[in-house]
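Format notes (please read before filing issues)

Several people have asked whether sequences and structure tokens are stored in separate files. They are not. Every record keeps both together, in the order shown below: the sequence lines, then the token lines. Line labels are part of the format and must not be stripped during preprocessing.
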Amino acid sequence: MLFASLFLFIPFGGNDKCKWQQDFNTIFFFGVVVEKFLDSSQHSTPIVEVKDIKTGKIDTLDFFGDKSNVFLLINKLDTIYKTPGSNKVFLKNKNKVTTIGSVNFDCKN
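Then the structure lines:
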């Protein structure tokens, strides 16, 4: 009986990946990268902290499970943005905008 109860709480990953992708696709950010690191307290989760251009608020982006390696292409002091409904992350440099990459959590839906 205890085994059956524990079995219900063990995540299997497929749904998690799709949830991570959906969550990432809905967010918006536009700001300057103030910090980029692997969070050793969270199994070396890739984290990027972005200071919002308008509000100054710090947004924390969690790239755990991303297969695209966008995290590796982002640098401290980059101005980056992403619009809702998309998985593409853009770099704004002066008047030029380039695509850094498309975040992919390997959702199989």
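For reference, the curators noted about this record: The chain is about 20% helix and 40% strand. The CA atoms of residues 23 and 85 lie 10 Å apart.
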